[in-house]
């Protein structure tokens, strides 16, 4: 999973710090999980999301807001056997 | 249990969590292993050796040269032979107390319900995403516990789906909906044999623990990174709108009773049960 720093102009936006796969990120505080993924240029149907050691199912991504200190794990399905 | 079996399984019986009753319990269990490749050949070997009484091995593929570095049950002379039949014959020879059946038809809508309904537990060792979705659907529908593991590159994922005893943890589809893009398979990104071995051993251990009621394996997604050697754990969540285990699935009548969907178990046995050579 390769993430890029959010290309946001955060000068006039309230921000929070979260971690994504152990890396700190400063993001707009109003972001939903879906917004977080889009800001990172991650296709919505390419990953699963864990927030603070709890799986967040895809149906919650629009509603659930990111909050200060959230620890996200974002990863793709592995299907090999 | 006879004296020889008591000696054979003595190191397992020594465990307080197993004991003689647990070992007897394993011997009465029927486990279905779907996919007898990297994970499945190792998991079925572990389960047969541990004293699981009945195994059904499902795989329509044949052994290929590129399988051999990680599918340790097979060798050069097996290339071109059915994986399910070859594994059955070798394991039956080594572990005569385990009754092993092979199914060489592709697992799918035609036979999925009847195969899954035979099982006390299903182990998903398939190598592709559509098959994993199908296995999950049949297990949810039949209320059979499913231990699903996967591996590719240096990444492994494993968790148990148990709609009967842990419905709040959801199912495979809750975590990975059908429209998920899959980029990592062993064929596309490669894999090391020991990486497969790690995940297969975890899968066999999770299966035995679940069969014997040891620990709290259900409800947790575990992911292993073979480069950093880190395990990560997360609590699984059910998607209330899941097409497979959620409200919508029930309202749409997707869930028929296991009996309605089940074909005759005997017909499967007659078609696929060959005496070991």
TrEMBL record, chain A:
The gene is thiS. The lineage of its organism: Bacteria, Pseudomonadati, Pseudomonadota, Gammaproteobacteria, Alteromonadales. This is Sulfur carrier protein ThiS. It comes from Shewanella atlantica. It holds the Pfam family ThiS.
UniProtKB/TrEMBL annotation, chain B:
GO terms for molecular function: nucleotidyltransferase activity; sulfotransferase activity; thiosulfate-cyanide sulfurtransferase activity; ubiquitin-like modifier activating enzyme activity. Gene3D superfamilies: NAD(P)-binding Rossmann-like Domain. Residues 9-244 form the THIF-type NAD/FAD binding fold domain. GO terms for cellular component: cytosol. Pfam families: ThiF (PF00899). InterPro entries: ThiF/MoeB/HesA, ThiF_NAD_FAD-bd, Ubiquitin-activating_enz. Belongs to the HesA/MoeB/ThiF family. This is HesA/MoeB/ThiF family protein. It comes from Shewanella atlantica.
